Amino acid sequence: MSGLQDRIEGTVRRWLNDNRAAGIGLLQELVRTRSYSGHEGLPGRPTSVVGRLAAEAARHGTETHVQEVGPDGANLIERVRGEGTRALVVDAHTDIVPEGDHGLWLSCGPFAGALGEVTFLGGRRVAITVGDERAEAEVRERMARVWHRRARPTRRIVYGRGAFDNKGSVVAGSLALGALAAALSEHDAALGGDLVCSFSAGEETGQTGIRAFAEGPGSWLARHGYLDRERDARGRLRDVFGIALEGSYGWVPVVGHRAVVQMRLSVRARSTHAATPELGISAVEQMARLIAVLSDHRAELERRLLAHLEPSLLGPPTVAIGTTIVGGGVRSVTTEAGGVSVERSGVNVVPNWCEATLDARVPPLAAGANHSLPELVVGEVERLLAEHVEPRGWSYSVSLLPGGYVPHASLGTTLEEAESHPLIACARARAAQHLGWEPHLETAPGGTNATFFIAAGIPSLVEIGPGGGLSHDVHEFVEADDVVDGAAVLALTALDVLGVTA
């Protein structure tokens, strides 16, 4: 079938090139469409992100399923059915984080979906240009390594919130399915197994979409028979494979990421009238003390954690302090074109409560550990604070947030083990065609939905996707042509993994 597969590959590449402008246009439209977690939309709302993706799937002629995971959010599942027993399941989340203060972005704002350019300046620095405006920023070291290998220092981009995390990957997934469906139809062929792509909701808060798609006997994958197939001695499915599509390092395969432990730091104190502050104890002031202790002793906290962990594959732990903070009479916070708007009451009251959050990213426990990872992290934060703070007339507590623990994910315990997996070999070979050089394997600092595939026994590529930068930051961007050209990496990896029949 190599001749047939070669012809299908040629058609896939041609279809993607013919649909380049349409694909970049779709990306711009998705960036213009706000899709905060829980508000990704429904297929019946054509101007929502989910509605737009449903329209694309209808044009592809593929099979679609909808999983509603909230009143204004759903997974859209697109499937290209095959004729064999193998399956490749793909996930790309559609939600975004808030954009923050609009005044910190270029004047087009975070939701213009504007075209621009990014230029590599050396080191880790890039310049982002939209129209006649320019901003400089630093990208991750892993992305800088990719830039150093490239022949061209300037790339076309789409600028805005969610462009890199994760709408570039969403569009790449949609284009890959459209190209494969068109090529299979043109050559009267079928894949040797099912290709299933979930455009999932709620990844940024609680992973609601991927849980509905892949977690437990009630999940979409279980109900459709993908999780009850033959497994190996380690409990991994033999013929079902997974890929998490995320804004990444220009289609360099990522084979692991650390666990997530998110905590709530709560302070309770004594309120009084602001005219007599000596009669109360401000919870916000005491929270500031706790935050300062954690910040001043962050390196010590991370060293203590490291003593119980195995960092050889995924790297050492890190702790982000005060990722959110609220207290007193704050009722709501919104971000608008004019900046951040805070609705307050009780400005004349010394606050008796304050809460902040901490986000730790940690590799797996070392052999012989006698506690869970969340217990370790919460316990070490409590121990550090107890050594430096003695509350008098006020109290604090540290606890795991609901849904605040997501395990690490890796395709093996070492890079060598991951490298030997057939899925990685296929993706790496296709990425090499795209990049023009043999890519190294990477691990990711953040988490992906591959955690839930691996927990279900699906051997998975933990992350792969287009280049870009500044996810969760101002000036976020994704490389526009990398979205389109990289869609071939996904489509042809699926072709290699599943095979093709006449």
Write the layout of secondary structure elements.
Elements: H1 2-18, H2 20-32, H3 49-60, E1 63-70, E2 73-80, E3 86-93, E4 114-122, E5 125-130, E6 133-138, H4 141-149, E7 154-159, H5 163-186, E8 190-191, E9 193-200, H6 208-214, H7 220-223, E10 240-245, E11 254-257, E12 259-268, E13 272-273, H8 283-296, H9 298-306, E14 318-327, E15 330-336, E16 339-344, E17 349-350, E18 353-362, H10 373-388, E19 395-406, E20 409-410, H11 415-419, H12 422-435, E21 442-444, H13 450-455, E22 460-464, E23 468-469, E24 477-479, H14 480-498, E25 500-501
Parallel strand pairs: 3-9, 3-10, 10-22, 11-21
Antiparallel strand pairs: 1-2, 2-9, 4-5, 4-7, 5-6, 7-24, 8-25, 11-20, 12-18, 12-19, 13-17, 14-18, 15-16, 23-24
Helix pairs in contact: 1-5, 1-14, 2-5, 2-14, 3-5, 5-14, 12-14
Task: Please explain how this structure is put together.
The protein is of the alpha+beta class. A six-stranded mixed β-sheet has the order 1-2-9-3-10-22, sandwiched between helices. The mean pLDDT is 95.
Main sheet: strands, sense, barrel: 6 strands, mixed
CATH superfamily of the largest domain: Zn peptidases
- Principal-axes shape call: globular
Adjacency order of strands in the biggest sheet: 1-2-9-3-10-22
Tell me the distance between the termini: 8 Å
Tally of alpha and pi helices = 14
**Rg from Cα:** 24 Å
- Give the number of domains: 2
Q: Structural class of the helices, strands and pairings?
A: alpha+beta
Secondary structure tally: strands: 25
Low-pLDDT stretches are none
Indicate the multimeric state.
single chain
* Chain-averaged pLDDT: 95
Query: Could you please say which CATH topology of the largest domain applies here?
Result: Aminopeptidase
* CATH C-level of the largest domain: Alpha Beta
Percent of residues in β-strands:
25-35%
CATH architecture of the largest domain: 3-Layer(aba) Sandwich
How helix-rich are the residues, as a percent range? 25-40%
